[in-house]
Amino acid sequence: MSGRLHNTNFTMDDIASELGLSKSTVSRALSDSGRISEETKKKVQDFAKKHGFKPNLVAKALAGQKTLNIAAVMPFEANVTQMMFFHECLSGIVGRAAKDGYSVLICMTESKDNEILESVLINKKVDSVVLTQLKHNDKNVELLKKYSVPFVVIGSGAGEDVVHVDSRMKENCAEFTRLCLNNLKVGSHVLFVCGSLDVEANNNRLSGFLSGMEDSSSDFQYAICTEASDFEDEISLKSWNMILCSDDVVCMQILEILNNKKIAVGKDLKIASFHDSVLLEGHSPSISALKVDASSLGEKAAELSLALASGKECEKLNYVDCAFMLRESTE
Question: CA–CA separation, 228 vs 295, rounded Å?
Answer without folding.
Answer: 28
